[in-house]
Amino acid sequence: MFARTPPDTTAGVAARRQPRALLGDRFTAAASAAAVAATTFALLAPAVLVAVLSFSNDSFFDFPPHAWGLRQYRTLLEDPRWGSALWLSARIALPVAVLSALVVVPTLFTIHRSRLPWRGVLQVGGLTGIIIPISAYAVAMYGVFAQIGLLGTYWGLVLANLTLAVPVMLLVTSAAMSRIPVELELAAMVAGASRVQAWLAITLRLLAPAILAGGVLAFVTSLDEAVFINFLGGPGQETLPKAILDSVRYGLDPVITAIATLLMVATSLAMGLAAQLARRGAR
Amino acid sequence: MSDSRTAGALGASASREPAMSTEPSGAPETVLDIQALSKSYGETPALEEVSLDVRQGELLTLLGPSGSGKTTLLKVIAGFEAPTSGRVLLRGRDISRLSPARRGVGMVFQHYALFPHMTVAQNVGYGLKLRRVGRAERERRVGEMLELLRLEGLEGRYPRQLSGGQQQRVALGRALAYDPEVILMDEPLGALDRALRIEMEEQIRGLHRDLGATIVYVTHDQREALALSDRIAIMRAGRVASVGAPEQLYTRPADSFVAGFFANANLLPVVEHELLAEGHARVRCGGSEIRCPTTTTSVAGDGVVLAVRRRSLRRAASPGALRIAGVVAEMLLFGDEQEISLQSPVLGRVVAMMDSRDCAGLALGMEVELFAPAGEAVLVPVA
Q: Can you tell me the ipTM of this complex?
């Protein structure tokens, strides 16, 4: 009645095979850890290099620096050019973030809550801004802006950056929206809420962290925009990325290491904040 | 509602008695009146001419396989879907075109659908707040609900800090708090594990009894329907196949679908039948001739089958019993009970559920005779 030899041998084989399999797993784990470490290093090394260089007191690029100090940062603060570039970038990025939200929120409700036959197209169409190659898009926009007189204007730049910020925000918030079950709205409506009340008090409220996170990303996207400004910006319109590009074009000024470091730190903090907000929204 | 509570509870328990009469004396008034409701999505009909009445204080279950239209019916009652034709009356008021908010119904969803950003107390009080019930009265009412649902001390918690059973109790509280005329429940126990489901069944039964609430309950689980319902409406392909008290559906199924789906009965081919007086018939089936109850009025030879429940079959012969002879094709042990599949040359596959002690000596391939005592087999029309 009891099974004898055959199951025993297979069990034995399995037992003998197991350590080898474990060894294989350990090798795979070690290999992937090495790959991750190498990739991370490759990605971070230039950033770290720039950050280190920003604390050099040399007036030229050299690694390792001959003298350490805060000279680059002092130059940065003393030169009004950087401050005004940052100010222009921020003045563009803030309305871009706000307008993105105003465009994205109704779009989200259309995509996720309506029965419009074209809502799938809207979903894909909303992302075109980051799918089309940016330089091609910039050329097209140059043509249009020239026609309607938006070249070199502040609102022209806001509008251009909006085409990049909206898809970024849509991407982040759409994921959050799809995690909000429609039953929550139905439950609110059965309990006595109008559709609009249910949207505002339940869905929009639950979406708020994702919208904030998307806003931060939209802000950063606009702040960092370096292509459109070169095509569409007019004389005197110098955003931070343009100022950096220009300073590199006319010779390497080590002050850009300081500005690059500050920019990296600020965006990392902003991204961290966005991730934190998105995570809170997911809970 | 307080005055109608006892009356409703009494009516409910009266109809759950195993007596054959389903009408308690002085039939309670109709709360929800569904009249010839149809709903189609494009060409596909989801509901066809569904008529149903739900009475004061009863728990009516919509039972059916998936795609039978039971959830669609619930959505139309709640106002999430507009009917293609037909009407829904709540206490005589036509609510078919009203928004969900204005219907005054409560609903419990399968996945609770609690508001994650609100505390337990805020969730339960949500409907009251929308009705502009004052703060003090709201707090009193929420406290009452939490006590009733054994959720005291959890009012400040958020849904994610609660167990599945607690979440479902909060969902019940949210639906009950504003005292709706009728409460709709869409497979409310579907997301819970088995042990918890049985506990929640008891709780729903208790709430229903104590509050006398009128409940429309959707499930695909026949056992759950039996445990909870005053009446059951069995749905099939967008229609109501049969409505009745559980015992009635069980012992006198209206047709072969109800017998097969609800009572899990064997449907045996009939050679010939003759209708007698008082809902009985003489039937020839598989070599025996018996006198049995019937729910058909058809005198035609085809279009009827003999429904024999699995637990009706036993090995001991009795006078007037239906005899089934065949070969044991399969045996499954369920502890105290055993499922025996018999292959009969005339009747096909017949499944019996018998006491394990009664199965002693049975083996695969063995020729046996099983008997359904007189009155246990029912002649039904083919659906």
A: 0.81
